[in-house]
């Protein structure tokens, strides 16, 4: 196994520059593909651009930090199988709560700051049924974003700051990376939950499961016409089910893993 180098890279400002480089690399790749493959579906081109640009970016990051992909995805004393067996059910139980809370926040924001026509069209494009959109939003985004925001950025932050500060800072950067105020709110809330899970388990797999389940749920809601990003059914019954489901998930995770910064819990990294 490789010995990690540059353990505290990136810091807060370095993380912001890294996210900017991430965007630039993806945009340039997308522009190149658009020129080379004219007429290709916009979302399919976006999915291919994200895959290729991240392959290049992470090749450099892994070399610079001296990390293997095995360490990046699961740097825990417990096996992947054991980690998922303990966390998968409560992690998935958080999804209805994140949808409901995100829907409340999204509704409030849209009352204060109504969406522009361009923003509404962008959300509609992400939610429309197409193979490219599904792959981009529901497959690539959960894996690649967790690799960057939890696997690299939060991993470094946890070596620089207290767990609570590290989680909140990484969640804020995750929200900012969505480039609009509506997804910032959902990203911040979800980023805190994802950061807590990662800090306790040192594994990206539960984080990827939660991120993917959330994105799939949002996509299905959008395609059904119920709502847009971070929207949830407005019925009182769903709200109660969502809150009870989330309460169950949080209680299970707290019992098994503990709160961030507490006594070293099950699944922590070998020192």
Summarize the structure in words.
This protein is mainly alpha-helical and 271 residues long. The protein has a domain at 76-257. Helices cover 76% and strands 0% of the residues. It has ten helices and no strands. The protein has helices at residues 12-36, 42-65, 69-73, 80-112, 117-127, 131-160, 163-176, 181-201, 205-224, 236-257. Helix 6 (131-160) packs across helix 8 (181-201). It is globular, with a radius of gyration of 18 Å. The two termini are 14 Å apart. Residues 228-233 have low confidence and may be disordered.
Please compute the radius of gyration using only Cα atoms. 18 Å
Unreliably modeled segments? 228-233
SSE order, as H and E? HHHHHHHHHH
Q: Percent range for helical residues? A: over 70%
Largest sheet: none
Give the secondary structure arrangement, pairings included:
Blueprint: H1 12-36, H2 42-65, H3 69-73, H4 80-112, H5 117-127, H6 131-160, H7 163-176, H8 181-201, H9 205-224, H10 236-257
Helix pairs in contact: 1-2, 2-6, 4-8, 4-9, 4-10, 6-7, 6-8, 6-9, 7-8, 8-9
List keywords for this structure.
mainly alpha; 10 helices
């Amino acid at each position: 196994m490789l010995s990690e180098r540059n353990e505290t890279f990136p810091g807060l400002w370095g993380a912001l520059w890294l996210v900017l480089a991430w965007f630039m690399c993806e945009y340039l790749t997308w522009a190149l593909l658009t020129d080379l493959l004219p007429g290709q579906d916009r979302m399919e081109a976006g999915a291919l651009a994200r895959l290729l640009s991240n392959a290049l970016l992470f090749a450099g990051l892994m070399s610079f930090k001296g990390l293997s992909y095995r360490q990046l995805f699961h740097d825990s004393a417990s096996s992947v199988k054991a980690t998922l067996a303990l966390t998968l059910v409560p992690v998935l139980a958080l999804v209805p709560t994140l949808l409901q809370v995100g829907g409340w926040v999204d509704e409030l924001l849209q009352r204060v700051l109504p969406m522009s026509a361009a923003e509404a069209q962008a959300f509609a494009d992400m939610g429309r049924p197409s193979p490219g959109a599904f792959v981009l939003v529901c497959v690539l985004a959960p894996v690649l974003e967790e690799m960057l925001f939890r696997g690299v950025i939060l991993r470094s932050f946890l070596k620089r700051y207290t767990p609570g500060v590290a989680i909140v800072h990484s969640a804020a950067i995750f929200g900012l990376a969505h480039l609009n105020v509506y997804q910032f709110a959902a990203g911040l809330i979800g980023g805190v939950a994802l950061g807590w899970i990662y800090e306790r388990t040192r594994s990206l797999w539960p984080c990827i499961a939660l991120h993917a389940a959330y994105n799939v749920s949002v996509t299905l809601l959008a395609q059904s016409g119920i709502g847009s990003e971070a929207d949830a059914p407005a019925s009182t019954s769903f709200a109660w089910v969502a809150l009870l489901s989330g309460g169950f998930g949080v209680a299970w995770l707290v019992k098994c893993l503990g709160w961030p910064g507490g006594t070293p819990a099950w699944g922590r990294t070998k020192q």
